[in-house]
Write a structure and sequence with these properties.
Blueprint lengths: L6 H8 L3 H14 L3 H5 L6 E6 L16 H5 L14 E8 L3 E5 L4 E4 L3 H4 L8 E7 L2 E8 L12 E4 L7 E5 L14 H9 L10 H4 L1 H4 L5
Parallel strand pairs: 6-7
Antiparallel strand pairs: 1-2, 1-5, 3-4, 4-8, 5-6, 7-8
Helix pairs in contact: 1-2
Amino acid sequence: MANHPLNGWTNSLTGGKVENMKAQVCAVMVLLGLAGACKTGSSNHFAIYLTAERVAEPDRFHIAGGPFASALNKNVTSTNDWTNVALIAPPVFSEKDIVTIDFSNKLMKVKPVVFDRLPKASVWGTQFILVVDGQRIFLGNFWTPLSSFSTTTPTLLPSPLPEWNTLFLSETRTNEDDPGPWSDPRIVQSLKKLHKLGHVEWPAIVDNVGSTNDAPH
């Protein structure tokens, strides 16, 4: 039988050389301009990826009589399964860019370079998917305080304070006993192993807001 380019892939499967086959597949994808698809399977343990297309969010906008949700969700199907959602590689940031995450204060301290990669602020939010140790944990949004809308997804809100380099973690909880999406055990355990959990101080300007009203005139 004449040699065929696919024979090597077939032989690698039967011979158990899966990694070799994966490398060949990625090489072909690079030639086709699809290198990003290979990168999403990288060695990152914690990564925030933007979605390539909008994913529908049920009951997303809580505005009386607002038609915005149907307009934004047009031609997309609501789902809680993000397995097949196309992601944009490389990630906006990963554990390598994180200094400390404080789940008690809902703050994430990151390296300054992260703010250069954040998407442009949008009142509609910019969707991302959190991937932890290869698992897609949840769909979230980069958010802005300039938006008059709200979302039921977890959010990352960049701090407006210069040089603080911090993101606010926000989420919607069903009740007081609900720990919330950011406290998912898979996230906590992964960050614990990476030694990324700790305390992030609120800046003095925030701590002093409550005391300024009592200051002598």
